[in-house]
């Protein structure tokens, strides 16, 4: 009798896991489509990114994509919440770390962006995201230094 119950439980558990896996794949596919169409249809991309979250609310990549679309739409504060959720689900997701750090740069939160760069370097040292983020941070630092020099020159006059 216990063997039958155990068998039924395992079958049910396997069924649940296979369903979750397919929802995860659907969520990733919807998220990728949202990224692809962003440049041509921003509103549809936002809707698709939300649909991806409905398909699998625990998908870190879907949260990161939704945040990235908001970031590209210059809704940095809203995007920050999506990135936080993404990194709660997967703190080493390279897209989540990269896009979130880019968002931090836009909000002049360079310390947070540098922390995410360190995590990226440690988790995927040769990945494009860590290289691109380092370039973005260097560019922002140059702009900040240039602005500081310009302000100092104006004060000296």
Task: Provide a short characterization of the protein structure.
By secondary structure, the chain is mostly helical.
Question: What's the CATH C level?
Answer: Mainly Alpha
Count of discrete structural domains? 1
CATH topology: Serine Threonine Protein Phosphatase 5, Tetratricopeptide repeat
Radius of gyration (CA) equals: 21 Å
How would you name the CATH homologous superfamily? Tetratricopeptide repeat domain
What general outline do the C-alpha atoms trace?
A: globular
Average pLDDT rating: 86
Terminus-to-terminus distance: 91 Å
Overall CATH architecture:
Alpha Horseshoe
Low-confidence stretches: 4-17
Fraction in beta strands: under 5%
Helix and strand string, N-terminal first? Answer: HHHHHHH
Structural class: mainly alpha
The number of strands is 0
Biggest sheet record? none
How helical, in percent, are the residues? over 70%
Counting H and I runs of at least 4 residues, what is the number of helices?
7
Could you name the key traits of this structure?
157 residues, mainly alpha, Serine Threonine Protein Phosphatase 5, Tetratricopeptide repeat, 85% helix, 0% strand, globular
Describe this structure in words.
Residues 4-17 have low confidence and may be disordered. The protein is mainly α and 157 residues long. The radius of gyration is 21 Å and the shape is globular. It has helices at residues 2-37, 42-55, 60-72, 76-89, 94-106, 110-123, 128-156. The chain has seven helices and no strands. The protein has one domain (27-156): Tetratricopeptide repeat domain (Serine Threonine Protein Phosphatase 5, Tetratricopeptide repeat, Alpha Horseshoe).
């Amino acid at each position: 009798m216990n063997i039958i119950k155990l068998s039924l439980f395992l079958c049910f558990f396997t069924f649940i896991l296979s369903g979750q896996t397919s929802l995860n794949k659907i969520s990733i596919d919807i998220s990728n489509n949202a990224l692809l169409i962003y440049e041509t249809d921003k509103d549809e991309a936002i809707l698709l990114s939300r649909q991806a979250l409905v398909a699998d609310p625990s998908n870190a990549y879907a949260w990161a994509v939704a945040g990235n679309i908001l970031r590209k739409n210059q809704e940095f504060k809203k995007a920050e919440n999506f990135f936080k959720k993404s990194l709660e689900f997967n703190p080493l997701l390279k897209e989540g770390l990269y896009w979130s750090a880019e968002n931090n740069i836009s909000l002049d939160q360079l310390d947070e962006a540098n922390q995410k760069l360190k995590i990226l370097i440690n988790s995927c040292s040769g990945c494009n995201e860590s290289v691109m983020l380092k370039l973005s941070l260097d560019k922002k630092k140059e702009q900040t230094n240039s602005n500081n020099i310009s302000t100092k020159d104006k004060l000296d006059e």
